[in-house]
Amino acid sequence: MTLPDHFAEHAQRHALNDEFHARPPVPLESPQLISYLAMHHDGCEPGAALQHLIALGKLLGQPIDAEGSHRLIDFGSFQLRWELHNEFSSYTFFRSVARGEGLDHSTSALAAAPQAWLQSLPGKLIVATHVELRSAAEVTPDSVMDKLSPTGTAMVGAQVADGAAWVFTDFLFEEGFSRFLVIDVSLTRRQAGRTVQRLVEIETYRLMALLAFPVAKGVGQMLGASERALADLMDRTGTARSPDDERSVLADLTSLAAEVEHSVARTTFRFGAARAYHSLVMQRIAELREQRIIGLPTFHEFMERRLLPAMHTCETMARRQEDLSSRVARNSQLLRTRVEVELERQNQELLAQMNRRAKLQLHLQETVEGLSVVAITYYASQLVQYMAKGVKHYIEPFTPEGLTAAAIPIIAGLVAFSMHRMRKHLAAADGGH
Question: What are phi and psi of 223, to 5 degrees?
């Protein structure tokens, strides 16, 4: 039954399904030489890795699409698998060889690739490893074990895929490369491809996870100094006796908080990536389905002994950093509260002083108003006197002085009443606002 035409498909439906099936293991058949490089995108322009891959296609006459994040290209003399990740690009070279060829490490899969192109890979090398896939007819586990030291502590090994293969490595660099030996006992071609893919991913994610370890050591030094500085600031907080002292401590706390938050912002991604990479390492090891080889540590044991302590250090530094950030913020808030309480107290004192000044101004205003009534009454009575003198012949037997004396209380009462009405009106208008 086909999909009905009236269904409206999500724009990313096919892309998501293709991504789900992307990056399948390359089927391999022993003997096979595999070389793997991972280039960290440190200072690279976006798309530089893909453009460099396209240049290889042009050089070898194999057109390569300019889209996508992974490719498997058969150049005839070798196969190349390219993958683009968030932080790095990986290049896996596959080269089939004749039985017995390269057993002395005289050649590798990289020998078939153009050397000038290899030397100009964009980015910085973070992982370089060789994997030899050999049949049990070429190399036997006993021959490998015979070459080990009596204790075998330098080698890591296990039977994998339910005993279908043996894997050996020491995780050390020889001429810049780590090496894995996979002895094929009864692997199918797809099992061999999955085994090799898991091994190079273990090596890649191991080193990518360890990128956080130097960061953790640097953070540890910063945390020690910052924790001592925080303790000193708390001592200063307890001995602060004035608002200026408290504001000085608060300024220093703010500077310390900015420093800690800068460190958190700078390291959060790296510590989070380390957790993710470590989880992938342990997941890939679990997928190997290891069986112990007597005398040798398994991959799981080796990672627990060598990688896990570094990851615990990173986790501890991340927790300490977050804890310090919380403590600084909490102490800053407490001190800021003290400063705000002191400011509120000062504001209350200022308001009280303003209230006292307002009362004094009111008393002064009332005094001035009383004087104003006297002054207005005096001048108004003079006007009455002048007017009475002008008509003294018409007001007899009253005299101008008598009329002035009689008018004085009336004028004073009218002036006082008018000022009282005006003050009441202004008070009502101010209360309305």
Answer: -65, -40
Give the global pTM.
0.76
Q: Are 139 and 183 spatial neighbours (Cβ–Cβ below 8 Å)? A: yes
Over 73-124, what HEC string results?
EECCCCEEEEEECCCEEEEEEEEECCCCCCCCCCCCHHHHCCHHHHHCCCCE
Name the phi and psi angles at 103, rounded to 5: -65, -25
Give 240-292 pLDDT, tens digit per residue. Answer: 777 777 778 888 888 888 899 999 999 999 999 999 999 999 999 999 999 99
- pLDDT tens per residue across span 319-354: 999 999 888 888 878 777 766 766 777 778 888 888
Among 109, 118, 124, 108, which Cα is nearest to 59's?
118
d(CA 172, CA 273): 24
Beta bridge partners of 71: 82
| 3-state class (DSSP) for residue 387 | helix
In 3D, which of 47, 40, 32, 48 has the Cα closest to residue 93? 32
Element (H, E) at 35: strand 32-40
